[in-house]
């Protein structure tokens, strides 16, 4: 009976304590089941006390281990909390900085927008001013062109008036100054006619209306005697004398060479000079060129006599005649270049 009692107690103790099988050095493991059943009450009590103490020791150790872990977890939690607080502070600081930067950027963008708008307005105003200046410039150019055209027309009118006034005049070049002291200029002209055109000297209808000397307007630096201008009564007599002079070619006064020409305005003389190079080329090609009164070019082309008042008219005509274009190509090109250089010089001035 006692053995069964001890056996029941041992079973109950085993069931209540549930000692883990992996625990080492526990009192219950020092005895076999049969040995425990055979224990006396005193031994059993001792056994239970040792077992309890062993469990108590294990519990204390487990408690200590748990407390250590809890303490470690608390420290880690505190560290995490501090880290979280620091991170939150940093985030708040960064948020403040980002917000300030955003405000600054917004302010800068607003300033840039205002600046761009101001620049657009200024550009618009500048474009309007430029457009106005261009319009004014164009108006000035057109006005200058009109003025230049008016000046040219006035010069042409003045030149035509001068040519009309001088239409009966003959200009004598190369007569030494002082020779007119004996006979006067009219007497010298009669002597020229008698020396070179005996038949004309006897023509009583040729009358000198006026005679005087005039300075050389076209070459002030040239040390040559002043020209003698003879004003006749009719254009017919002037043309007759000049025709005889062209036929004789060599005109003299007391053995010294002189020249007889028509008396033109400076503009007409310049216009006649501008035909010289072209007339020379046409003369070499046997086109029979002539410079007509007051400044027209006449020559024979394909059996017809052509007359031109200006070089532009001549260029337009030459463009339709390949053979004539080949003849005058070089001289017309050089004339265009020369006028271009003159225009550039006027622009620089």
From TrEMBL:
Keywords: Coiled coil
Stretches with biased composition (Acidic residues): 30-39
Domain of life the protein comes from: Eukaryota
Domain L1 transposable element RRM, residue spans: 168-263
InterPro entries per the UniProt record, alphabetical: L1_C, L1_dsRBD, L1_RRM_dom, Transposase_22
PANTHER family with a match to the protein in the record: L1 TRANSPOSABLE ELEMENT-RELATED
Protein name: L1 transposable element RRM domain-containing protein
Species for this entry: Oryctolagus cuniculus (Rabbit)
